[in-house]
Design brief:
The chain has 160 residues and is α/β, with parallel strands linked by helices. Helix content is 33%, strand content 19%. It has six helices and seven strands. The strands form two sheets. It has a four-stranded mixed beta sheet with strand order 1-4-3-5, covered by helices on one side. A three-stranded mixed beta sheet has the order 2-7-6, covered by helices on one side. The radius of gyration is 17 Å and the shape is globular.
């Protein structure tokens, strides 16, 4: 319901290790998302295409996104939500709606340096990592530990 033209969404289980240049500055006029480790939508790709009339982009992860306000079609969302299958997995209903709206509008997925996963480890040049799931031990054991090893906390102290 924001009145701004561009909305950024960042889940609380994402840790940044470098400035998110691609998220902030690349792909003008398109919605931008993390690439999920696998396709996680409420319905199959075929069902979503039949519902919306457009084959949706696979692997959108809405945990980290830049959304153009004009891409959100509330009338279409209302119609899609009338399908009970949209709630088959409440965990990904929002993500499914973002995939449908964004496919119709224009969408880009961030590079692998914006990681999503529950497996340990980092790709070279990592910008951030999203640790999805109900239990996130790697968020603390890996992500926060790496963040603490950087100058991040010292930089925060100098802001005061």
């Amino acid at each position: 319901m924001s009145r701004t033209q561009t909305i950024f969404s960042i889940d609380s289980d994402i840790v940044f290790f470098a400035p998110p240049v691609e998220l902030l500055n690349c792909y003008p006029g398109k919605n931008v998302f993390n690439r999920d480790a696998s396709c996680q939508y409420s319905m199959t790709m075929d069902e979503l295409e039949a519902l919306s009339g457009i084959p949706p982009v696979a692997d959108i992860n809405s945990g980290l996104s830049r959304i153009e306000r004009r891409s959100i079609d509330f009338a279409a969302i209302n119609g899609w939500l009338a399908n009970p299958k949209m709630f088959a997995d409440n965990w990904v209903t929002e993500q499914t709606l973002h995939a449908l709206c964004s496919t119709a509008f224009g969408v880009e997925l961030l590079p692998p340096t914006y990681a999503v996963g529950v497996e340990p480890g980092f790709v070279d040049g990592i910008v951030c990592k999203h640790y999805p799931g109900n239990i996130r031990p790697l968020l603390y054991q890996e992500g926060m530990r790496r963040l603490a090893a950087t100058a991040f906390f010292g930089d925060l102290a100098s802001i005061r």
